[in-house]
Structure formats: C-alpha cells, structure tokens
Amino acid sequence: MAAAVSGSSCVASASRKVGSFLFKSVIIGQAATDSHIMESQRPAKLEFAVQMTCESCAHQVRAALEGTPGVKSFSIDVSKEEVLVESALTSAEVQALIESTGRRAVLKGIGGSEQDLGAAVAMLAGVGRIQGVVRFLQLSEGRCLIDGTIDGLEPGPHGLHVHTLGDLTQDCLSCGEHYNPHGRQHGGPGDSERHVGDLGNIVAGPDGRASFRLEDGQLKVWDVIGRSLVVDAGEDDLGRGGHPLSKHTGNSGERLACGIIARSAGLFQNPKQICACDGVTLWEERDRPIAGKGRSKASAETPAAHL
Prior knowledge:
By secondary structure, the chain is mainly beta.
C-alpha cells in the first residue's frame, strides 16, 4: 500500500508487504465479545499483485482459493497480474493461500463493501526480530477493521494499543500515552469506560506469530492517522488487575515494538511498481527488510521482513 505521509515514500511502499511464508497455525487475538470489539467475520476486499504469466498460473491460484472457508469471492486478471479477493480471513491467510501455488503476492490495496471511508497501515519494528504489519479499514461510520500479523513475539498474550503521538525519536518511549480523547480510565476493548486506543490483547503462538482480525466500534481511521501503534511485552489486564497501573496502562509491561499509523491505499489506488527513493521494485522489495542496511542490498545478516 502507498501511505500518503510526506517524506515516507519508502515506508509507504513497504507497507504493501504481508507474510511470505505459509504459517502452520493462526492464533487469533483475544478480544471481548460484545458490540465494541470482536473477532471480525465481516468480509473485506483485498487487492493483490501476483506474479502470473499464463492461464495455468490463474488456474492454480483459482484452485487454491476456490471452496476455502472464509473466501467469499475472487477474480483473477492475468494481464494485470492482479487478484481481487473478498474474504473474512486475515490478509496474511489469503496471501498464504495464493503463495501456496509458488507465486509471490503483494497486497496493494484493501477496501470494504461500502464506499471508501479510509484505510491506514502501521509497520511495526522493535526489540530484536519483532516486526509486523497492522492495517486499519473503516468498514462503516461505526466499525473499524483491524487486520494484522506480528512476528518475533514471546508466545502468549501481548497488549496492543494506539498511542497519542506519532513520534519515534526515542523509539517507542516517545509515542506518548494511550490515545484517550475522552479522558477515561483504561479498560478492555469491550468496555464503555476505556481509552479509544485500548485494543486488548493479541496472542502469539509457539512460533512467535500473532495474526488477528478484529472490529472496533470506537476507533476511527481518520482519528488515528499520524498517531502510533504499540505492542507490549505482557498481557493487558484490561483495567481489572488491581495493580496501580491497571487503570492507566493495563500493566502490560514495556513497549516492545511500534510504528506510525499512515494513510494507505484503498482498492485500485496503488499503481506503484517501484520505490522512487531507492529504486527497489515491487517484487524486489517483497524479499527485502522494511528498512535499514538490508533493504537496498540483500544481506545474509539481515533477514527479510516476510510481511
């Protein structure tokens, strides 16, 4: 996806990445089950660039998607090397299905069934090998889809929050407090008394990957662009733990990884094939790190982001 934030064309280009490996299991983020936030079953439309050269390629992609639970519909255009999928699966799951055919895929745009109400993306990086991509799609005036995959975490639950500031000058320490425009106490994502930025917990599996697809009734894409998304070391107690920090942060520990939330491309809004800042093509960057020394030149010491 291309993020419209001045001076960040490389990050914008990198935001198209989403998991290159078939993951063996998907651990869905835990969330409250009332009307504010829940595991989302509402389909979204995902636009992928896919390396295809012939109808045989299209046949294999079609076979991978057809009949898969959670895939509502899809279309394939070999001449444009494009696959459009309407699905209730995470974007990483859909990409894994496409790439199971041996063809590389890059997510270029995301949209809902209604008019385009806005989309955003955060590229997370932090301690050690932690990195991830989280996308926000405004499905309607009152519903925001949050679709993400984060790798390199310790197995178990981790607090996830939108923070007030999009400031990474001191890494995650300069992101400010939880986004809390109404001045409320910290709570669970299903509580009426909560920070707008309180997204509860995501859960990493034994492989260190957390993959999640949530809906929230308080978060609005247009309110969080330019702010930051942070994943914490521990479990958010949702304000119920009795610790002095419970009503402030959920006592979820240090900030492990973070990224600025930038506006991103909707469906058919991203024709970009090359990053103007470093000349890395769509397919070259697919196998490069998000940023740093390994991006402009392949390095055995710097693993690909695989996002």
